[in-house]
C-alpha cells in the first residue's frame, strides 16, 4: 500500500515539474541565442525578444543592449517602442470586428464610407471609389499611390518636428500619383490604412484610436501598454520608450515628430510582450470570434506567386506556417499556428532586423514546434 501511494506521488511530481524543467531549458537556449547574435551584431544597438507560447506555459521577455546610445542606459525587456507598420494588423482586426458586428462587409465599395471631402479628392484625380473595396485597402490592391516615397523621407529629414495632418498625407498621395488598376497588383501603401482609419471614424463616430481600442477589447484583454503615440495618454506604470535609430538618415526616433507615421499605417507604441499577446489573441479567436473572418485574415488576396499579403497580415512559409508583419523601425512579430506561439523581435537599429529578426523568429519557432511534436 505504501509503495503504491509513494509511486503515485512520484508520478504526480514528475508531471508537475516536467513543464517547468522544459521551460527552464528553453529559456536558457533562447537567452544564449540572443546573446550570441547580439555579440556578433552590437551595432544593432538593442534587441528585445518576447516568446508567448500558452501550450508550453511560456511567456518570456528578454532584452540585450542599450535603450539610448547617448547614455548607454541598459535596455529593459518591458520598454515599449514604436511598432510602425505593425500597426496595420490592429487596424485590419478593427475593420474585421466591424464586419463581424454587421456594420461593414469585406467586399463593400469605399465610396460611401469615406468622408465627402476625401471621396471628392480622389474622384477629382480620376479614382473611382465605387470600385475600390475594403478588401482592396486591407490587401494593398487598391491601385492608390502612396504618399511615402524618398521625397517624403527627405522632407521628414529636413523638418523632423513638422506635425503632419492626415489630410495632408491623403492630398500628397493624390498629388504624386495616378490611379492604377484595382485588385490586380500588390502595392504596399500606408495610404490604404489611413483610409481604413477614416472609415472606422465615419462608421463609429469616434476618433480612430478610441474606436480601435474598444473594438479590439484592450481593457478586457488587459493590453495596458499598447497605445497610439501622442494622441492617447502615455500609459501609467510604463517604462520610457526605447530610442530607435535609422543610420541611413541619422535618425533617432525621439527627435522626429511621430505624426509622420501615425494615422493607421503606423502609430502604435507597445511592449514586445503586448505585441505578441495581440497576435496571440487574434489567432486564438479572442478578438475576432467569427472563424470564417479569421480565416479570411490570413488567406491570400491574390495568388501567392503575386503576393503573400492577406488582410493586414503576411502569410509566409518560413519552414513552418507563419503569419507575420514587420515595422519600419525594426519590429517583427511572427505567429505559428503549428506551435500556437508568437515571437516578437524588436531591433533598435533599422537595417539589422533583416539579419537578426527572421533568424531569431525561425530558430525559436522551430524549437517550439519540435517541443510540440514531442508532447
From TrEMBL:
Q: Does the keyword Signal apply?
A: yes
Keyword Calcium among UniProt keywords: no
Q: Where is the Beta-lactamase-related domain?
A: 62-350
Identify the keywords attached in UniProt to this record, alphabetized: Signal
Q: Which SUPFAM superfamilies match?
A: beta-lactamase/transpeptidase-like
Q: Where is the signal peptide?
A: 1-24
Q: Which Pfam families match?
A: Beta-lactamase
Protein name, per record: Beta-lactamase-related domain-containing protein
Organism listed in the record: Sphingobacterium siyangense
Amino acid at each position: 500500500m505504501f509503495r503504491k501511494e509513494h509511486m503515485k506521488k512520484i508520478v504526480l511530481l514528475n508531471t508537475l515539474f516536467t513543464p517547468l524543467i522544459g521551460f527552464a531549458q528553453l529559456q536558457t537556449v533562447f537567452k544564449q541565442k540572443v546573446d550570441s547574435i547580439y555579440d556578433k551584431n552590437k551595432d544593432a544597438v538593442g534587441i528585445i525578444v518576447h516568446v508567448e507560447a500558452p501550450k508550453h506555459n511560456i511567456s518570456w521577455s528578454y532584452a540585450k543592449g542599450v535603450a539610448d546610445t547617448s547614455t548607454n542606459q541598459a535596455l529593459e525587456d518591458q520598454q515599449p517602442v514604436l511598432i510602425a507598420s505593425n500597426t496595420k494588423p490592429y487596424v485590419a482586426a478593427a475593420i474585421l470586428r466591424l464586419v463581424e458586428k454587421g456594420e461593414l462587409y469585406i467586399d463593400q465599395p469605399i465610396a460611401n464610407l469615406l468622408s465627402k471631402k476625401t471621396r471628392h479628392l480622389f474622384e477629382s484625380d480620376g479614382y473611382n471609389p465605387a470600385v475600390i473595396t475594403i478588401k482592396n485597402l486591407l490587401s494593398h490592391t487598391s491601385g492608390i499611390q502612396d504618399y511615402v516615397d524618398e521625397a517624403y523621407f527627405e522632407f521628414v529629414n529636413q523638418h523632423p518636428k513638422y506635425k503632419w495632418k492626415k489630410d495632408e498625407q491623403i492630398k500628397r498621395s493624390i498629388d504624386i500619383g495616378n490611379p492604377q488598376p484595382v485588385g490586380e497588383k500588390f502595392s504596399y501603401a500606408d495610404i490604404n490604412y489611413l483610409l481604413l482609419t477614416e472609415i472606422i471614424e465615419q462608421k463609429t463616430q469616434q476618433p480612430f484610436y478610441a474606436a480601435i481600442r474598444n473594438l479590439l477589447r484592450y481593457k478586457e484583454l488587459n493590453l495596458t501598454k499598447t497605445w497610439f503615440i501622442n494622441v492617447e495618454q502615455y500609459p501609467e506604470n510604463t517604462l520610457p520608450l526605447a530610442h530607435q535609430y535609422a543610420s541611413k538618415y541619422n535618425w533617432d526616433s525621439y527627435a522626429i515628430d511621430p505624426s509622420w507615421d501615425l494615422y493607421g499605417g503606423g502609430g502604435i507604441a507597445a511592449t514586445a510582450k503586448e505585441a505578441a499577446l495581440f497576435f496571440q489573441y487574434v489567432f486564438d479567436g479572442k478578438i475576432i470570434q467569427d472563424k470564417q473572418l479569421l480565416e479570411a485574415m490570413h488567406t491570400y488576396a491574390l495568388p501567392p506567386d503575386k503576393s503573400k499579403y492577406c488582410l493586414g497580415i503576411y502569410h509566409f512559409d518560413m519552414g513552418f506556417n507563419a503569419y507575420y508583419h514587420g515595422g519600419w523601425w525594426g519590429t517583427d512579430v511572427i505567429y505559428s499556428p503549428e506551435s500556437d506561439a508568437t515571437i516578437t523581435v524588436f531591433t533598435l537599429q533599422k537595417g539589422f532586423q533583416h539579419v537578426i529578426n527572421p533568424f531569431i523568429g525561425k530558430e525559436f519557432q522551430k524549437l517550439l514546434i519540435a517541443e510540440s511534436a514531442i508532447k
